[in-house]
Write a structure and sequence with these properties.
The protein is built from nine helices and eight strands. By secondary structure, the chain is an alpha/beta fold.
Length: 255
């Protein structure tokens, strides 16, 4: 037994939404093994053939979903994020790939849809607490990792209508919707607490920017589009984004 990982697993996994307490106990055991041996495969983490089979049976169960298993962890993270301070929400989408010539049930095309390239997408929001730098500006301080405030997966369906019109494209669900959907699940920032979303070029989506603004989230996003700017008071056209950014003076820097 490992006291620290065991305590962590007990705390983070106790709120898993599973109807059988034995399955909750199995989730805690798996989480502890992952914390002790993060680089090993599941069979290598398990202490016996029985543990390997019990782990497989858990993941095959209808209740063992990405929504149910980490629900207790997400609740703890979101509660911690309501405490006074500044929190950075690091966000991106990852492709999980299974290559091979045989199609696997539950997976869809990924990448450029090359032959045998199949898997699904995981959209993750990792929350960290930004340190209080009011006393020391000489060096960058480490952040405190809180955990996953949101995580969702999506399986791409093959395109059945390659010649659809522009109006049809606007009506169907788009993969870019994962970004504003993550905003809605994370929720509104509490009064007196600062939440800042940090993402790469894939997040330069109008609907996502609007969702952050409506929910009181700050944003730091690498620009992908040279957007038109409007004056915050008059609403009149105020130039283009890249020109304004390049002409502005730097506010600070660190190595």
């Amino acid at each position: 037994m490992h006291p620290e990982p065991q305590r962590w697993a007990e705390e983070q996994c106790a709120g898993a939404k599973l109807t059988d307490i034995r399955r909750v106990a199995r989730v805690k055991t798996i989480a502890e093994a992952m914390a002790v041996h993060p680089g090993r495969s599941l069979p290598q983490r398990c202490r016996s053939p029985y543990a390997v089979k019990a782990t497989d049976n858990l993941f095959k169960h209808v209740e063992a979903t990405p929504e149910n298993i980490p629900s207790g962890h997400r609740a703890l993270v979101r509660e911690a994020m309501r405490q006074p301070g500044v929190y950075v929400l690091l966000e991106d989408t990852t492709e999980l790939s299974w290559s091979g010539t045989q199609a696997l049930a539950g997976l869809g095309p990924i990448g450029q849809s090359a032959a045998g390239l199949q898997g699904f997408f995981v959209h993750t929001v990792l929350s960290v607490r930004w340190p209080d730098t009011s006393q020391d500006h000489s060096q960058r301080q480490p952040v405190e990792v809180i955990g996953l405030s949101d995580q969702n997966y999506d399986v791409r369906t093959p395109c059945r209508h390659p010649r659809e019109s522009s109006q049809e494209r606007l009506k169907r669900a788009r993969e870019s919707q994962v970004w504003p959907q993550a905003s809605q699940r994370v929720g509104r920032a509490p009064e007196g607490v600062r939440w800042v979303r940090v993402a790469d070029r894939a997040a330069d989506i109008y609907a996502y920017l609007v969702s952050c603004q409506e929910l009181g989230h700050g944003v730091v996003i690498r620009a992908a589009k040279d957007r038109a700017l409007s004056h915050p008071e008059t609403g009149k056209r105020a130039g283009r984004l890249l020109t304004a950014a390049r002409s502005a003076g730097p506010l600070g820097e660190f190595t």
